[in-house]
Design brief:
Elements lengths: L15 H9 L8 H7 L5 H5 L2 E2 L7 E2 L13 H35 L11 H10 L9 H17 L8 H6 L2 H9 L7 H11 L8 H30 L5 E5 L8 E7 L3 H13 L1 H6 L4 E7 H11 L3 E3 L4 H5 L6 E4 L7 H6 L5 E4 L10 E2 L7 H17 L13 E5 L3 H9 L8 H8 L5 E5 L11 H12 L2 E6 H9 L5 H7 L2 H13 L11 E5 L4 H15 L8 E5 L5 H12 L4 E3 L9 H15 L3 E3 L3 H29 L8
Parallel strand pairs: 4-5, 4-7, 5-6, 7-8, 8-9, 11-12, 11-14, 12-13, 14-15, 15-16
Antiparallel strand pairs: 1-2, 3-10
Helix pairs in contact: 4-6, 4-9, 4-10, 4-24, 5-6, 5-10, 9-10, 10-24, 11-13, 11-16, 19-26
FE(4)-NI(1)-S(5) cluster (NFS) binds next to helix 13, helix 20 and helix 24.
């Protein structure tokens, strides 16, 4: 139950720049999520625990002492299970829509239509093709691409029930494929699974909570597939990220520049706007500005940070505050995690909110239909709107917090392998497995996920990460969690000195010495692996560790944490992490405890079946303890199993 006292405090953030903006706008009537959260209290406990059903319009049905079932007879476990599957579906559909969009741009290139896009990373194209047994030798880039795009399209649309997802089959260890087959959750394709799941959650369909949970996991595997396709194709199109150095937080805004925030998720839009902005300096100068500055918000910010070194401005929760600096000329958005509230805030300033995608519009915003076949022309139109807005800026409203921190980002798995390979050339990943085997590192933790006003903005991310660093856990991050770490100065070499335990420090020192001069900076405390779809890069890391240790993934000392999870996408990502063997902490209570049965499946039965499981823990210090305990259990077990294998001269036991 939330503490009522803390809910009177509007300043629910530890980001000093966000605090400064909130303070400077106190009482000026501009309303943000921080205010609306307070207005929303107390939130409905039926919805909060998952026992409110609105699946049919006889509802809403809520479970009370008097009414132990819905009008149709649905028990709490059915209602909670069905709501869970609907959440996973929302996340999966969002990621897969993103993946389809990139695939459609690739289709245009593959078919030889004129396009402002072209292949940047032909090596990655060949690597992906080879992974899927597509011939590479003696074939043109176009021919290879056509086959890769054909396969990607099939991953979405296949109806044949005997053929299973190739992206799943080829990117995880064989034991995980077998597990999915044994449990009957191996997807044939994304669209088929989404339709099945929507049908399954219709009124009067599935009432069996176990069946609903298993379908949630199957759907979440489609999320994994759609995300992996997004990452792979984005790398082919825009390049596989390599380390990039820049700054993060509001202090990256320049008073004398036309400032453009790129907000949303898909690199298809943001990459081309960055290109247009770089070409339109003269137009900006003619309007009296020094230059054009693109900055990133949320995951499209991560995409252009990883590949173009564009500075990240802020993460999900503080998106409205970016406008309240008075120095934001345009906020260009594509899809997902865009608060409708930005438009009302923008109307108090000169900022133009520019929506671009047919299924993500905001009333009263500018809408530029981002037609990819005329991408550069459209991007120039967008940048022009920003330049026009700059002329309308009211200098008396400009107040930019002078807060920023150095960020070293751009760590695709390929970039990580390059760095690890400097101390372990024969097998880069062995640098990590050796350090874990020797006890120097306690394991690896992925920080992913959003911000959520139910907990203090950025606070849980910061506390858990620094606590794990102190305990020698190697840290990687994506999404808005990475946004926190960049803003708060945890993504640079100084943070290693400040927060890492002795083992982690020694490991980083070896890496830095072996990679001297490569980046021109010391490596960061937390490795930024990209946007949320790039959680698949992090899972490829798990797979690489499992292959190196020659074990299934539930044995690998790798945990995940979403301390401030908010979106349906976070639910679907968490669900595939668990299915694919990763203990996963969630720092905000999901709407599940209304059914102790479904809750028990998530927390315990999942572990028995899949080896991964959920941990709900709102207290960040307790969460850090639980994550460490999960890592310790795995390193200890692996040691015991290895000793047994050596003694009896057999392979390491497959059980966990
Ligand atoms: Ni992930 Fe990235 Fe952020 Fe959450 Fe939203 S931007 S896709 S969903 S809020 S991390
Ligand atoms: Fe109520 Fe059943 Fe309809 Fe849900 S599906 S709203 S529980 S009658």
């Amino acid at each position: 139950m939330a503490d009522k006292k803390k809910e009177k405090n509007r300043n629910r953030t530890i980001d000093p720049a966000a605090l400064e903006v909130l303070a400077s706008c106190e009482g000026n009537g501009v309303e943000t999520a921080y205010d609306r959260y307070l207005n929303m209290q107390p939130q409905c406990q039926y919805g909060d625990t998952g026992i409110c059903c609105t699946i049919c319009i006889q509802g809403p049905c809520r479970i009370t002492k008097k009414a132990s079932k819905g009008i149709c007879g649905a028990a709490p476990y059915t209602i909670v299970g069905r709501n869970l599957l609907r959440h996973v579906l929302g996340g999966t559909a969002a990621h897969c829509d993103h993946g389809m969009h990139i695939t459609s741009v690739m289709r245009e290139i593959a078919d030889g239509h004129e396009s402002d896009y072209s292949i940047t990373d032909s090596d990655k194209l060949k690597r992906i093709a080879t992974k899927f047994d597509i011939a590479v030798e003696g074939r043109s880039e176009q021919e290879i691409l056509k086959d890769v795009v054909d396969l990607a399209e099939e991953e979405f649309s296949r109806l044949d029930k005997r053929t299973y997802s190739k992206w799943m089959e080829k990117t995880v260890v064989p034991e995980r494929v077998q597990k999915a087959m044994d449990c009957n959750i191996m997807p044939n394709s994304i669209h088929k699974t989404i339709a099945e799941s929507m049908a399954q959650t219709h009124m009067g369909m599935d009432a069996d909570p176990v069946n609903l949970v298993f379908q949630s996991l199957k759907t979440s595997l489609c999320d994994y597939i759609g995300m992996h396709i997004s990452t792979d194709l984005s790398d082919i199109l825009f390049g596989t990220p390599t380390p990039a150095v820049t700054d993060a937080n509001m202090g990256v805004l320049e008073e004398k520049n036309v400032n453009i925030a790129l907000h949303g998720h898909n690199p298809i839009l943001s990459e081309i706007v960055v290109r247009a902005a770089r070409e339109m300096q003269d137009e900006a100068k003619a309007a009296g500005a020094d230059d054009i500055k693109c900055v990133g918000i949320c995951c499209t910010g991560n995409e252009v940070l990883m590949r173009q070194g564009v500075p990240p401005l802020t993460n999900f929760l503080s998106q409205e505050l970016a406008i309240m600096t008075g120095a934001m000329d345009a906020m260009v958005v594509d899809v997902q995690c865009i608060m409708p509230g930005i438009q009302a805030v923008a109307e108090c300033y000169h900022t133009k909110v520019i929506t671009t995608i047919p299924n993500a519009k905001i009333p009263s915003s500018y809408y530029v239909d981002f037609d990819e076949t005329r991408a550069l022309e459209k991007a120039r139109e967008i940048v022009n709107l920003a330049i026009e807005a700059y002329k309308e800026r009211d200098p008396s409203k400009v107040s930019i917090p002078q807060i920023k921190n150095k960020v070293i980002a751009g760590f695709s798995l390929e970039a990580m392998e390059d760095i690890l390979g400097a101390i372990s050339p024969e097998s880069p990943i062995k640098a990590v497995t050796d350090a874990v085997d020797s006890g120097e590192l306690a394991g690896v933790c992925l920080f992913a996920g959003c911000n959520n006003l139910k907990v203090f903005h950025d606070s849980s991310h910061f506390t858990i990460a620094t606590e794990l660093a102190k305990n020698n856990v190697l840290l990687v991050s994506t999404g808005c969690a990475a946004g926190t770490f960049g803003k708060l100065g945890l993504m640079n070499g100084d943070a290693v000195e400040k927060y890492a335990g002795d083992g982690l420090k020694a490991f980083m020192k070896r890496l830095n010495e072996a990679n001297k001069g490569k980046i021109g900076e010391d490596l960061p405390l937390i490795f930024h692996m990209g946007s949320c779809v790039d959680n698949t890069r992090c899972y490829d890391f798990v797979t690489a560790l499992a292959e190196q240790w020659k074990v299934d993934t539930p044995k690998v000392p790798f945990v995940a944490s979403a301390p401030e999870a908010m979106s349906e996408k976070a639910v679907s990502i968490g669900s595939w992490c668990v299915t694919l063997g990763v203990p996963t902490h969630v720092g905000v209570m999901p709407p599940i405890p209304g059914s102790p049965l479904v809750d028990g499946i998530a927390l315990q039965i999942a572990q028995d079946v899949y080896g991964g499981y959920f941990m709900w823990e709102e207290d960040p210090m307790e969460a850090a303890k639980k994550l460490l305990a999960a890592l310790q259990e795995r390193t200890w077990k692996m040691k015991v199993h290895k000793m047994a294998a050596e003694k009896y001269e057999t392979a390491v036991s497959e059980t966990w």
